[in-house]
User: Fold these one by one.
Assistant:
Number 1:
Amino acid sequence: MIKVRTPTILVNFKTYAEGTGKQALELAKAAEKVSLETGVYMGLAPQLVDIAPIAHAVSIPIFAQHIDSISPGAYTGHVLPESVKEAGAIGTLINHSERRLTLAEIDSIISKTRELGLVAVVCGNNPEVSAATAVLNPDVIAIEPPELIGTRIACSKAKPEVVTGTVRLVRRVNSDVVILCGAGITTGDDVAAALRLGADGILVASGVVKAKSPYKVLLDFAETLARQ
Amino acid sequence: MIKVRTPTILVNFKTYAEGTGKQALELAKAAEKVSLETGVYMGLAPQLVDIAPIAHAVSIPIFAQHIDSISPGAYTGHVLPESVKEAGAIGTLINHSERRLTLAEIDSIISKTRELGLVAVVCGNNPEVSAATAVLNPDVIAIEPPELIGTRIACSKAKPEVVTGTVRLVRRVNSDVVILCGAGITTGDDVAAALRLGADGILVASGVVKAKSPYKVLLDFAETLARQ
Amino acid sequence: MIKVRTPTILVNFKTYAEGTGKQALELAKAAEKVSLETGVYMGLAPQLVDIAPIAHAVSIPIFAQHIDSISPGAYTGHVLPESVKEAGAIGTLINHSERRLTLAEIDSIISKTRELGLVAVVCGNNPEVSAATAVLNPDVIAIEPPELIGTRIACSKAKPEVVTGTVRLVRRVNSDVVILCGAGITTGDDVAAALRLGADGILVASGVVKAKSPYKVLLDFAETLARQ
Amino acid sequence: MIKVRTPTILVNFKTYAEGTGKQALELAKAAEKVSLETGVYMGLAPQLVDIAPIAHAVSIPIFAQHIDSISPGAYTGHVLPESVKEAGAIGTLINHSERRLTLAEIDSIISKTRELGLVAVVCGNNPEVSAATAVLNPDVIAIEPPELIGTRIACSKAKPEVVTGTVRLVRRVNSDVVILCGAGITTGDDVAAALRLGADGILVASGVVKAKSPYKVLLDFAETLARQ
């Protein structure tokens, strides 16, 4: 059930210029086009200010890049989980390497997502950390070795042992969680390698957001996934 | 010149339920109504996800509650200054007591706002801290003793020396900056007291956002201000 | 093997006045006396500046309250793991509720302790978080519900399900780790309750440090432990 | 008065291997030798665990590298100002670029140092930030452009405008504070340049700590200072 709600390609727009405002909207439409053409479930994680406009403009699921471990109240400048849901997000990234959280916060935010019916995508920087988060029962775990993030060296090819190690350690404590593989993914081949190593899908950022044609890159990814 | 761009009532929506999503939009419309009826310059600081919808719906200026000290790039889960500008904000709160920043970040964010033409509203928790921020030349300084935030005990009445002390210390190093007074402001009387002590306007949150009728409270504030 | 190196009573001096400087030294001597008289393995976690003097003055094992995830280098104001070892500590608390760490830091610090031969005592605020840390293979896990810390309401009596839940969830992923129970422990009875629920020992702070006679309280604890 | 208590050479040991434990003690003795031979007032900022042993072993003043904005209480893993004083420190670095603090913390820690009679040495990363801290009346301000820290490119030679700008902006708001210049200082010539630009002394780290002969480097510095 949960799995049906989880994307097999999740695009993190980060705070790239190409992933902000109008450019974010165009990127979202390109992704929607690929998703409709191929039937591959694709999610988008734009910046907070872009969630509402993008959620109104496209039919594919939107994720926040981060939410805070708070309830409604006096928390100026923080991200209320309820606010991203009302804005149209169906889930959120948690603990991305560029926005690390305390373990107690990760636990508390996963509980929040459960209460609110949001999909929790927790990021881990290595197999051990990923397995530790698996104990907390998120919907999705995304493994991304930080040293490969933003490079064009695919985790699934350069460090296959990180993917297989994550799958093995995570499965020991959690048989249901969806596992995404990220960092350096730029071609359909990288995607195919990730799937062969046991990943259920991919988390991607610069490889799509900063591509000359995000449409073509995503189509390559989606066709690879559709063939599996 | 700058002063014309700075509001004399700035409403911080925080992450209150009454200041989120649809309720935030209604609140913004009530504020716009008061502003149009009285001619008092009013700014609104809703949550990040609500900036775009509110900026489209109302004609009064919108502020972010926080931006990060970053440029476009790989900063998942952070707030890109450019993104809030493109979403329709004309300025931002900086260093609110509920979102404190390092001194180096405050300095760097003020520089960012200058580059982007955003209005910088820096918050201080006491006269000394406020005077220290004045050296960095923000557009607006808002003094809020944290122990009175969220109470119904107005800073301008319970701690007049905090307001006068801030005005005195800030003016020593900066004669131009607009000074707002906040914390516990709930009535026109509190506003009048703030102005008498040398403040140029007020920063308000729960006193408006959680009021039975935000319209009536803001009208009371604005009429007091218009009378000065 | 590792178990032999882990204390069954670990006294956290925090930054209490009664646990600083000369008073810390007296406290350490009282603890050593109890340990020698009863044969119960007792560890002490004084403040950083007090590690060297206390390690020289007493024969029982000393722990740091925190170390940073760093190697020798340019990290002004941080705590180098190597420095606490050279000063005489044999281990360290990690992720105490009053000094929470990111999950990636917890993982990295545990690896550091392994390299340096230090004993890693990771704190968790609830059973789920404790079980997540168990995946990372520390030597000791200390469960402390933060709402009971500093009270005189013993975790082992007021929230037995927290202790049993921790033991159950931790044991699912890690059969070796030593489990300590903390928060609100002030009497031998509280200690006995903790052991009955499956804990291997206790983590204690104000119950000892702020007691009229730390010696008597520790003796009560140690005799209870020795009877098991 | 205050000036007499402030060193003209302050050596930050950071967390370098060469500045830890036994090596820290040797370094401290070399510095003491230079200070006694030249009469130049020299301060040392070793790691927290090394404060007590070094303060006992040498007669020159010892500083902490960081203290927290806390009073005695339940703050596991934090640095109690009272604890470094009792251990033998006479002052502390505050807000070093490698340990940045919120503006409210800087203010609160300076107040703490005043209460306890400790010397407050606040670090700034540029002239504007340094001038902002000057409003808070610390005893000493140390300017260090972070991009030069740890290099062998002296701030006083490569960026003279940073030193003169700091002196100018700081003096506008504070005529008493002692100004140190840091980052990249490795020779007596660098020291002389700093003094010519208006600095009262220097803050140094790797240039001394990682030198083949810290004694010779410090002697070169001190003789330059003594000649002024």
Note: The mean pLDDT of chain C is 93.
Number 2:
Amino acid sequence: MTIKVAINGFGTIGKRVADAVDAQTDMEIVGVTKTGPSFGCDLAVKKGFPLYCTFDDSSKISAFADAGYSCSGGLSDLLSVADVVVDCSPGKLGAENLEKYKRAGIKYIFQGGEKHALTGQSYTSSANHSDNIGVDGTRVVSCNTTGLSRTLVPLFDYCGSLKVECTMIRRAADPGDSKKGPINAIAPVLKVPSHHGPDVMTVKPEIEINSLAVAVPTTIMHVHAIVADLPSGHGLSTESIIQMWKETPRVIVMNGVNNRITTTAEVMEMARDIGRKWGDLHEIFVWEDGISLQGDRLYYFQAIHQESDVIPENVDCIRALMGTEEDWKASVAKTDAAISSYYGL
Amino acid sequence: MTIKVAINGFGTIGKRVADAVDAQTDMEIVGVTKTGPSFGCDLAVKKGFPLYCTFDDSSKISAFADAGYSCSGGLSDLLSVADVVVDCSPGKLGAENLEKYKRAGIKYIFQGGEKHALTGQSYTSSANHSDNIGVDGTRVVSCNTTGLSRTLVPLFDYCGSLKVECTMIRRAADPGDSKKGPINAIAPVLKVPSHHGPDVMTVKPEIEINSLAVAVPTTIMHVHAIVADLPSGHGLSTESIIQMWKETPRVIVMNGVNNRITTTAEVMEMARDIGRKWGDLHEIFVWEDGISLQGDRLYYFQAIHQESDVIPENVDCIRALMGTEEDWKASVAKTDAAISSYYGL
Amino acid sequence: MTIKVAINGFGTIGKRVADAVDAQTDMEIVGVTKTGPSFGCDLAVKKGFPLYCTFDDSSKISAFADAGYSCSGGLSDLLSVADVVVDCSPGKLGAENLEKYKRAGIKYIFQGGEKHALTGQSYTSSANHSDNIGVDGTRVVSCNTTGLSRTLVPLFDYCGSLKVECTMIRRAADPGDSKKGPINAIAPVLKVPSHHGPDVMTVKPEIEINSLAVAVPTTIMHVHAIVADLPSGHGLSTESIIQMWKETPRVIVMNGVNNRITTTAEVMEMARDIGRKWGDLHEIFVWEDGISLQGDRLYYFQAIHQESDVIPENVDCIRALMGTEEDWKASVAKTDAAISSYYGL
Amino acid sequence: MTIKVAINGFGTIGKRVADAVDAQTDMEIVGVTKTGPSFGCDLAVKKGFPLYCTFDDSSKISAFADAGYSCSGGLSDLLSVADVVVDCSPGKLGAENLEKYKRAGIKYIFQGGEKHALTGQSYTSSANHSDNIGVDGTRVVSCNTTGLSRTLVPLFDYCGSLKVECTMIRRAADPGDSKKGPINAIAPVLKVPSHHGPDVMTVKPEIEINSLAVAVPTTIMHVHAIVADLPSGHGLSTESIIQMWKETPRVIVMNGVNNRITTTAEVMEMARDIGRKWGDLHEIFVWEDGISLQGDRLYYFQAIHQESDVIPENVDCIRALMGTEEDWKASVAKTDAAISSYYGL
């Protein structure tokens, strides 16, 4: 059986999830939605993804044909031929869409722009794949939460407890967004602590975590500056933590100075060299020479490609909901093999 | 016969030219050079390109082996197995390298960072492919000159004369370069007129052109603001110029407002969607709604992807030097078919 | 008689005009308006400017007292005690405000954000001070138009005719604005030619001028790249043009390379050193080494401090409307002496 | 007696210290040094500061006269007429200069670019003024250390102990610097923990502190994201900490959302409104709505004007070294009254 996947919203995240699903052997795209005819439709057409309208309104549906695009119907039509829908619509539409998905009787996955409360369930591969087996719907956590989970969960699993403070230095706009600023300022998130860190507890409640966040004038990656207190008697060293992360899926640990990759500019350049679509980096990048364990307190930096680290998580999450792969590491391996490019790190 | 191509310098331009050559059926990469072992070597290894040292010094050559990379020798060794070398070394090494290439008795191609005087010959597909058939060596002009040639040459060919002023708004650093500024300033090039525009005359001497240039705090593309005076009685209209450029190879003409592609951010996002390696855009992007012919004076804007527009030109140039394809349009078609991605505009 | 000046709108422009008016001996501030209590009110209070509400609504007026600010009434109250009002309200309120000013029977000055058609009259000191003597109301042209007038009008006055193309490289947001982007893009103004250049003709109709414009990710200054065709037989040289501008009020001509002032960053740093309020530079900055006359075609760059070049123009304009100073150079000298800091260039 | 102050280096810091010293009644500038004639000399001349050459070399001294500047001699000449020298030369010259100052037998003050070890003594008003009374020489700590001391010292003095983690989000270049990048990247300082936080212990050894640092593409201010652990039983609340800092000299506590000052762009705009020279903000800016005490853990953000927060510290430090004011609060009040503008916050 091939899992039939609908993508509701074919923008920054939607186009990437569709591409990653399309690359797998056990699932296929049965359709993607757009609000109206636009350049994004060409991308769907060329990829061979059936095009649907975000709305069921017949005049909006016929607008596609008027612009020369073949449109297969409205959202309801799409939901009726799918096993699972990945909601990649802009935020704040969650509650409304949830009703539609439930009415259609199919599984559903929301993104991290929605609150945990919407579904009462959240997901990230390394933290709680097994909790999501067979559930009706869930939320793949945000890029930041996913990034924190990747490095903190293995640390927690080893140590048994963890108390974390994270300062998130966030890119203020995505590369394709020319509207948002600031051009020359640092903008602290004045809600303190910020919501970012504690969101990790939706997938791993045992990790104690808080965060502070600022936005800065860059478009390419977030950086996390992390201070984690390990329980005494943890038995770890800087070296053994490096080793742990080198063995962790979807984490890249590289020496910055030796490889001349000391900023997010060079990290993204390396990602372009790797050759994935859109120059994406699904992995979390940890600077090896920025990791330092001082007594029980661990310091490290990691960089997050905000547009793509959650993409493979959505693929794994589909398998969890459909109950087709119970072992998270097996799913991760399958997903990544299909979307990796010629050049494996 | 397959043309044997050496790449001297495997950086921003070199890695892309190697990739593009590798994609062609009539040529192959016989080796690429690096100054020493580094992350860039991995990329060559994974692509299967034989690795050579930029120098002939045996201790520098053996440093590769020490770092775990198989190195096939020094530059002289590489030149001895090649038909043509594409020089992608950093600027200012031209004169020194030229001697080596001549001594090796092979054809050579320099990049636009070198002066025309070095080779006495310059190249861009649409302007003077035929002038370069069978010559010993030439220079593929810079990204800016290439961009100007793409749109100005067909206009000149139609009109018979052309007088042009161009203001070049240049990206101050490449995406992978975290050292250069400015962060918050505009930097005029105080040599007036700048060298950029007149360089077009190295490939098309009949076009009269001057330019002014500024650098601005962005990394992704240059923009040209162009004012071109057509000869009276030219018979063109805004619409016929749009049509001319739509039929010109390696020029994309799109309506900015209708397609929501009004800045270089959205142009580069479209390029990522197209799916070429590194998110490159080999074509010059001209905003259709930014073209306006007022009497005999033509105004337009074009965006230049500084990292990649010259890449296919190098491939065509190899064919010109080797004399294997005399028709520039045939070469362009062959080159582009091989490096285009799934999604043709 | 001291001219009684009202400032309607106490923001970026309004606070500066108020400060400049306050520094003169022949005029005084009788009040400034704010829409409601906020940090900006403190500035007015400390400067001793009577505070009025932008609206005549009594509940809005009393809101000031509730926040601890003494408010002298609504806009109508302010207009009733003024001879002239300088409208520094955000754009698009022009038509509505114009009615109020006429009803109050006082003179009025709008800013360049409003269209020429609103008043049918525009102003800049060097171009048409005498045309504005005694008129009921006018519009001080925008920072860009003011900048172009400063250097083009003396050139025109000397030559008798002038045909100009200007590419405007514009700062995308003001220093205190953290909302607007782009962070990493160049945004061409796709209306071609742009409205900026031709606006010069509202103050000097004989100058033929067009322009192209782009916005770039910087906050501090605009730069103009200008190409001006002089009539044949003009008799000027690069040196004599430099000399002309050195003798022109409110134009600074400095060698960029020799003074290490090669970008707008160093120009603004020099302005801070001069010691004017807000680090303003009322003058247009022209790079001496960026001026080049090639035959009849003149090339040059100039930098515009968008927040402040129009400030002294508003002061001169008040004198024109009130008919108290018919000689523009005398007014300029008086204005500038009063607002200059300890350090005269 | 008026203290005779020499400024060695008249750049970003030197010109500001000279200006602040000049504004005091108990000290005067006897001279400032420049390496050679340049635009910066004009500023000294206009201010009436005697100009000296950084070197004692007679040909370098005569170069000033050749360029039309009156030069009073070399560094030795300046030192011979001074009671104290403030070293504002670029970093790395410390050891060499120290010898000269000792030889001249005068007091000396270095800046935070030099290491504590150079003098074995460091200074910041609120932390250790009394330790510096009458010493031969000291080092005014860096802008970041000064900023941390301002808010942490009163907290420590109240609580008796403090354990702090600080993430420093640093501006990558000063406003007048157009050379340095990055334009679009975040650059972590891979030495972990960074040197910034622990430097606080040179003035207040009892505060336990570490830090992580990143540089970001902005020019105007640093931001500190701070997590401080108070000892149990501290008896403080968010409100009482706000009150404490409101009563602390050179700290501004303002509500960001209510005052629409939510980023460093608006903080700097407020500073320009205040009207100090160069638009400086000598105070540390703390967002009131970004302060949150959660149990014993305190979270807050503060913004640092890197060009100016140390300026008044240098004035106080002169009084400490000369032994003319033993009460730090009295010195601070005297210094600030002299350099404050019309508008006191």
Note: The radius of gyration of chain A is 20 Å.
Number 3:
Amino acid sequence: MQKTPIYLKAVTLKSINDISNIKNDAKKQMIIILRVTPLAHKDVEELRKAIEDLYNYVQSSGGDIARLGEERVVITPSSVRIWKGIE
Amino acid sequence: MQKTPIYLKAVTLKSINDISNIKNDAKKQMIIILRVTPLAHKDVEELRKAIEDLYNYVQSSGGDIARLGEERVVITPSSVRIWKGIE
């Protein structure tokens, strides 16, 4: 058990400008559940870039990332692994 | 940092019989993202009982539980707190 808890935060991706805040939360070892549909409905290409950016960030930081249904993406710090077979 | 990672698992609640497996995962200190809509569409009263059961379990184990949109419920072990303002 670690002393300080890990936080789990639900956030909404409305624009590619939200990415820096999301990365800051990820740097604080937060688990982020990201609702991507608002940006998906606005600009699919921008969503693609945003997800690619987050994917590269997560890869380099040793975290994990996975789709959660149609609406959400989960991002974890290196202390949290996403179970295989996530739907 | 702890040595063994925490796991995050996405599971679907289809019946009240799934509750014992979910509690077993929670006992293993897993974070569970539970899609509740399949049971919600089948039997709202059974869903209500299942959520109440999980809520009481989480309360007694020092974990955290929160709704995530219309479709999902998040359950965390005591080492993970859910950020206030979760949507």
Note: Chain B has one domain: 8-76.
